[in-house]
Amino acid sequence: MRHTLRIAALLVLAALAGGAYWYFVKQGGTVAALTAMMSGAVSGNAPPPGGSAGAKPPGGGPPMSGAIAVEAAAVRVGVVERTVTAVGSLLSNESVVIRPEIAGRISEIAFKEGQRVARGTVLVRLDDAIARATLAQAQASIAFSRAELSRADQLVRQNTGPLRNREQASAKLLADEAAVQLAKAQLDKQVITAPFDGVLGLRKLSVGDFVQAGKDIVNLEDIDTLKLDFRVPEMFLPAVRVGQTVKVAVDAFGGRSFDGAVYAIDPLVDVNGRALAIRARVPNPDGSLRPGLFARVSLTLTTVPDAVLVPEQAVVAFGKDQYVFKVVDGKVAQTRVMLGERRNAEVEISKGLVAGDMVVTAGQLKIRDGVPVTVLPGKPAGS
Fold this sequence. Notes:
Layout: H1 2-26, H2 31-43, E1 68-74, E2 76-98, E3 104-109, E4 116-117, E5 122-126, H3 129-157, H4 163-188, E6 191-193, E7 198-200, E8 210-211, E9 218-233, E10 245-250, E11 257-265, E12 275-283, E13 294-311, E14 316-318, E15 321-328, E16 331-343, E17 346-351, E18 358-362, E19 373-375
Parallel strand pairs: 1-19
Antiparallel strand pairs: 1-18, 2-9, 2-13, 3-5, 3-8, 4-7, 5-6, 7-9, 9-12, 10-11, 10-13, 11-12, 13-17, 14-15, 15-16, 16-17
Helix pairs in contact: 3-4
């Protein structure tokens, strides 16, 4: 007896499930319509199956018989950028440490720390007393050599002197001229100038210090334009080009971004990290950025100026394919689409939709291809 009751209960549940499938799936019915129909069965006024009781068409007109209320939004056309993010470091456009080429004692420091200087500005002078004396000695020797050469040449023309004396005098004059040039070069090395426009750092020596050749004095940085070094995975190699734009963010200026452009790509891929080294220039006219800062980089690979965008909730997955329900003449058309980039709760539709289309954003579970729908009024696009 108990076994028979179980079988009967299972048959009743199967019948209820089949009826629910027929009503909700095949007929497009809703819970509200079912409730109204049950109430109407008692009063004798049941609403038609598959419709939403009291549903109205767009514009607030009279209810459409059998139409399902949904929310919809119009397709938006906007700009979509495909980007890749990375981290990098800021470098000076030009950077050098000022060092003397010869040993000497510092007689004058002609700059202030942190000062902006132009190319050719005198920075440091070394004691040049010995260099000046050497130059004077070389100049005196060259005067005597010229006189000797003149006398030897005169004797040769008069056939009273050997030709060898004139050749020795000529060689001596050439050697003395070279000595004068060397003395002038050594004298010039006593004055150290700025090789390019830039900002000086902190000096490491004082007046009176004796410095050896190659000793650090001060660093000079050109920061009007900064270099930005960063790396991206090798998979982006086909998409990276010279001239692409970058946006740079640093922790020192939260919420502010700086624009730059790629100007060089290293032809050698790093075998350790399998990454591509890229260098960009970032204008820094106000001097806010400084070399050595840690930077977060967003590299723009491609830009689509007229991309078709829909809210993310409008896309429904069926297996491996993506679909949207497009509203056409009061009915929905299930449309297969191809997706692109996702940005700010929106999805780029690369294929399947055009500007001006209307897509369902809420209520996809109760509709199917070809059923009549009513777009709820007062819903803003993308809500």
